[in-house]
């Protein structure tokens, strides 16, 4: 796993919520932007655990899109009903993804 991913994962799961300080959210966003695409399957699995309870002022969307650059699906089983909404969103997006006609 690349150092940038290890740093991001080690700093928390999950992402901070809306109540976090602006500096914390900015720091996590900067860490996320340091991770180049695509991610590996191992990195995607580690990053999934970082999805938090809300969108973290857009940082969660950036994280979700980064996870989607890895081998799909990042989640192989449907999340339990009370799982994090981001896990449901990630699973649903992979489930309904249009197949790439070039592959």
From TrEMBL:
<protein>
    <submittedName>
        <fullName>Uncharacterized protein</fullName>
    </submittedName>
</protein>
